[in-house]
Amino acid sequence: MTDDEIKQLIASNAKSIKALSSSLAQERQERQRAYQEWEKDRNQLYQYLSRLASAQSSFYEVQADYYHQLSILGERQTKLDEKLVRLFERFGIPDDDTDET
Predict the structure, then answer these.
(1) Do residues 95 and 88 touch, judged by C-beta distance below 8 A?
(2) What sign has the CA pseudo-torsion 19, 20, 25, 27?
């Protein structure tokens, strides 16, 4: 190989190394951006999950209160029914709820 050929080979290799280095640096930056975006999305997902858990908790509290109120209403209904039966018996009013089938 002549000196000119060696110089051309060295120059060609230098260009290749520079291009590869630039490509690697660019890929590293793209990976860094992608990782940051992923990190942001993950944090957002955790926030959404936290909000969802809070909403579920609130829903279950409301649901429990609803069933509690239904229970209270059921007890009141039973007491009213018992009072009506006693009043009907007291005044001799026939009970229309009896099944005479």
Answers:
(1) yes
(2) positive
Length of the chain: 101
3-class DSSP assignment, residue 57: helix
- The Cα 95–Cα 98 span in angstroms is 6
Measured over the CA atoms of residue 35, residue 40, residue 41 and residue 46, the dihedral's sign is positive
Which tokens is 97 given?
């709820």
CA separation for the pair 56, 50 (Å, rounded): 10
pLDDT tens, position by position, 25-83: 999 999 999 999 999 999 999 999 999 999 999 999 999 999 999 999 999 999 999 99
Q: Strand, coil or helix: what is 2? A: coil
What whole-number distance in Å separates Cα of residue 74 and Cα of residue 65? 14
Structural contact between residues 51 and 59, judged by C-beta atoms closer than 8 angstroms:
no
Tens of pLDDT, residues 7-18: 999 999 999 999
Q: Would the pLDDT of 97 be above 70? A: no
